[in-house]
Request: fold
Amino acid sequence: MSVKKTGSLENLAEALRRLPGIGPKSAQRMAYHLLQHDREAATALGHALLNAVDRIQHCSACNTFTEIEVCETCQDIERDPGTVSEVVLATNFTNEGEATAHYISETLKARGLKVSRLARGVPVGGELEYVDAGTIARAMLDRRTT
Ligand SMILES: [Zn+2]
Reply:
């Protein structure tokens, strides 16, 4: 099937291509899918994206995403607001992740901080965002000092 390209279709594919890991062919497939098979999802995606961009900002204290000036974690009065005593590195177990962890670890140790890494348990070569919470919790409990 041949679909005549329009400006809007090309703009959508180009916008999708800006996402990490999405090449031109994947962006085009996603655009075609949304427009041809799931317009309801396309509309929901558009609304969710606009809403998120409009409402979400960085916490002024810790820089995480939040919809308020200071995130709920930073507002927790039972949280230890003291200086940082330990940094747990959670990089991917890829060569790039290992190199990044090594560099950060050496930098933080030079500043006198305790540095640890998540224990293995996360699939080698896997992306952390695709790992279930239980696996990450186990890896956190079994972390080791580097
Ligand atoms: Zn915060």
Remarks:
- The two ends are 56 Å apart (CA to CA).
- The longest strand covers residues 86-89.
